[in-house]
Design brief:
Oligomer: single chain
Radius of gyration: 28 Å
Strand content: 5-15%
Shape: globular
Distance between the termini: 15 Å
Largest sheet: 8 strands, mixed
Bound molecules: (S)-3-Hydroxyhexanoyl-CoA
Helix content: 40-55%
């Protein structure tokens, strides 16, 4: 945690009840000092006949947010949490957990080692360990099924789900929800409750078919996280193995996973997400009030953005250029909600309620009441400029004016208004109501309070926010373009699109670049390439295969043909001889003798291309930290989270090794793919991106 707190566990007496308060800001994590003091406290209670009951709680906002994640990169520190919980279990007095705020991971395990659990109505409980590539390591997989049954415990633990107090009470995870003073309710309970050790309860016998189904469902959504399978195994152990033996197995499994590369990568992303919110120059800036929003343009992006905002409870005015376009937008949004309801992720009633928050029309005066306006019109500078010019006339003073552009110059767009300080880029990813990433693009004039508003919005709508500077493509699209370009070089050199996609998917991406391109539509990139044509340096190697495909009307899935063929009824795209002919013709046109390209070369080239461009972005100040880049790639572009992002992967592999790949790549690609000076410097110094981050502003 931050600086160690001098006295992280306090004990007070209220009559014959001992109240134990964990006070370890910011989130009362169970750091070594906390465990040591808890152990001492509970060892003492056992022999104290003047104590009739014990309450345990957390100071501040949370109960306990779990083990101290920072300790997980250190050697084990005694006492362990299971040691503490074992002593608590032998305590003769009843122990009641008073849960306010979050009781997560080890925090919930601590509560499960108590005899009773009373929660405040705003409390949240869960065992989210799998999200960190580990499993609960202090009895969570054994005690929870004794309360909720095996199938439910699998569903909760394997998905790392966090649930509110009401659901926790209905499942029996907590015994009661206190409407008023949770501490007083817990004290009263400690005065009258008897002992109820969960470890001694049987696991309720459930329907084996449901257990099986819970396991299968969990594995389906595991996204390559090995901990999910281990969590399912451990929960199933509860019904089959005595408690004392099963917790040993759980502990050994936890310890092995704790040291895995996967867990280290996921921990890196956990802290990256928190660090990304620390932006130089905005400390102390207050976010502007945000009660009403407006979205201009109801295409795919605009509709998704409107849904993301309405889902978070914001009323949204969507405006389009005319009534027909507004009607289409309304239909598009309705379809998004219908799909969510059909997928069982929302009730029809809740979807209707959210849908009702969104108004559609062509009357731009609707925008005038909005605190935030997000423009999602066609990606063409002249259209953006005209939109912002008009917006400037209509939006109320102090409104945040955001552009969802994915490539264009935010400073130029801001200059179309008389209030550039209010203009910011809010780059959502498609589908905007689903994808977690939000790039907040900081223009030259963007005010600190406007950036702070971007972060407040991201928090409200559940997005991971990263600040990017202005350049063509910002962080994500610029890196993705470099990667795409290099994958196309490989295709022109000898690989087939399906070879590249297979190697990239084997690496852990959900989809390879050519399958992605077919999904998003080749015509979009074509427009961008044409836009850049005049300014592209003629020395840069240019692969024209995608242009040739577009010229043949092959725009991807929507036309049934792109890099692949999509025959009616076929479940998978199939390679197409016509595409191969185009590729071979382009290779021949450049005098290239096609060669076999191994999966390993494809994967190495992909990483080298991303890391090299990323190092340039860092040196230019477009991204503040290497860890911000990892967040962008993992949350917006499908880079496998279990690898921690490209920069983390590069550090782990060794930058000298990565530089070797970059130099090889440069030999194939030439101009435009020069090794980044920052990468060269760090590699030569035997350093890492992580050290570079640490040496900069926190
Ligand atoms: C576990 O428990 C394993 C056990 O089963 C094993 C037992 C043997 N440790 O997120 P925020 C820091 S695994 C260390 O911005 P919020 C965080 O880095 C754990 N530090 O606040 C940040 O520091 P800084 C299972 C932690 O209000 C500050 O606290 N538990 C921890 O948006 C504020 O964090 C979890 O996975 C931690 N456990 O959200 C829960 N947690 O200011 C992880 C937070 O220096 N935590 N920090 O950047 C959360 O989900 C959120 O932090 C929480 C608060 C919802 C609690």
């Amino acid at each position: 945690m931050n600086d160690p707190v001098p006295d992280p566990v306090r004990i007070e007496r209220v009559g014959s009840i001992a109240v134990v308060t964990i006070d370890n800001p910011p989130v009362n994590a169970l750091s070594q000092a906390v465990r040591r003091e808890l152990l001492a406290a509970f060892s003492g209670f056992a022999a104290d006949a003047t104590i009739s009951g014990i309450v345990i709680t957390g100071a501040g906002r949370d109960f306990v947010a779990g083990a101290d994640i920072r300790e997980m990169d250190m050697p084990l520190l005694d006492p362990s949490l299971p040691d503490v919980l074992a002593v608590m279990e032998t305590c003769p007095q009843p122990i009641v957990a008073a849960i306010r705020g979050n009781a997560l991971g080890g925090g919930l395990e601590l509560a499960l080692a108590c005899d009773r659990r009373i929660a405040s109505s705003g409390a949240t409980v869960g065992l989210p360990e799998v999200k960190l590539g580990i499993i609960p390591g202090a009895g969570g997989t054994q005690r929870l099924p004794r309360l909720v049954g095996t199938a439910r415990a699998i569903a909760l633990i394997a998905a790392g789900r966090r649930i509110g107090a009401a659901e926790a009470a209905s499942l029996g995870v907590v015994d009661a929800v206190a409407e008023g003073d949770v501490l007083a309710a817990a004290r009263a309970e400690a005065g009258r409750a008897g002992k109820r050790r969960l470890s001694q309860l049987p696991v309720p016998s459930g329907d084996p078919a449901q257990v099986e189904k819970a396991g299968t469902d969990a594995m389906r959504s595991a996204r390559g996280v090995a901990a999910v399978a281990r969590a399912v195994e451990m929960v199933r152990l509860a019904a089959a193995t005595p408690f004392a033996e099963a917790v040993q197995t759980e502990r050994a499994t936890f310890l092995a996973l704790r040291d895995s590369a996967e867990a280290k990568a996921l921990r890196h992303l956990f802290f990256a997400e928190r660090n990304a919110q620390k932006v130089p120059g905005i400390a102390g800036a207050k976010a502007r009030p945000l009660a009403r929003a407006a979205v201009i343009g109801a295409g795919t992006m605009g509709s998704g953005i409107a849904v993301a905002l309405a889902d978070a409870g914001l009323p949204v005015a969507v405006v389009e250029r005319d009534a027909a376009a507004a009607t289409l937008g309304r239909q598009r949004v309705r379809e998004i909600y219908d799909r969510i309801v059909a997928g069982g992720r929302l009730s029809g009633g809740a979807a209707d309620e959210r849908f009702a928050r969104i108004g559609f029309g062509d009357d731009w005066s609707e925008i005038s009441g909005a605190d935030l306006v997000i423009e999602a019109v066609f990606e063409e500078m002249d259209i953006k400029l005209a939109t912002f010019h008009r917006l400037d006339e209509i939006a109320k003073p102090g409104a945040v004016l955001a552009t969802n552009t994915s490539y264009l110059d935010v400073d130029k767009i801001a200059a179309a208004t008389r209030r550039p300080q209010d203009v910011v880029g809010l780059h959502f990813f498609s589908p905007a109501n689903v994808m977690r990433l939000l790039e907040i693009v900081r223009g030259r004039a963007t005010g600190p309070d406007v950036l702070a508003t971007g972060f407040a919005l991201a928090r409200r709508i559940g997005k991971v926010a990263v600040v990017a500077g202005v350049c063509d493509g910002f962080i994500g699209n610029r890196i993705y373009s470099a990667y795409r370009r290099h994958m196309e070089y490989l295709v022109e050199d000898g690989a087939w699109p399906e070879d590249v996609d297979r190697a990239i998917e084997a690496y852990g991406f959900a989809m390879g670049p050519f399958a992605v391109s077919d999904l998003s539509g080749l015509d979009i990139g074509w427009v961008t390439r044409k836009r850049r044509h005049a300014t592209r340096d003629p020395r840069e190697r240019y692969v024209a295969i995608a242009d040739r495909l577009c010229e043949k009307g092959r725009f991807g899935r929507k036309t049934g043909r792109g890099w692949y063929l999509y025959p009616e009824g076929a479940r998978k795209p199939v390679p197409d001889p016509e595409v191969r002919a185009v590729i071979e013709a382009e290779s021949a046109r450049h005098g290239i003798t096609r060669r076999a390209v191994a999966d390993d070369e494809i994967q190495r080239r992909a990483l080298a291309a991303m890391v090299n461009e990323a190092a340039k972005i860092l040196a230019e100040g477009i991204a503040q930290r290497a860890s911000d880049i990892d967040l962008v790639l993992a949350n917006g572009y499908g880079f496998p989270s279990v690898r921690g992002g490209p920069m983390f992967t590069a550090d782990a592999r060794g930058l000298a090794d990565v530089l070797g790949d970059v130099e090889a790549m440069y030999r194939f690609a030439g101009f435009g793919s020069e090794p980044a000076a920052l990468l060269v410097d760090l590699a030569r110094a035997g350093s890492t991106f992580s050290k570079w981050d640490a040496g900069r502003v926190k």
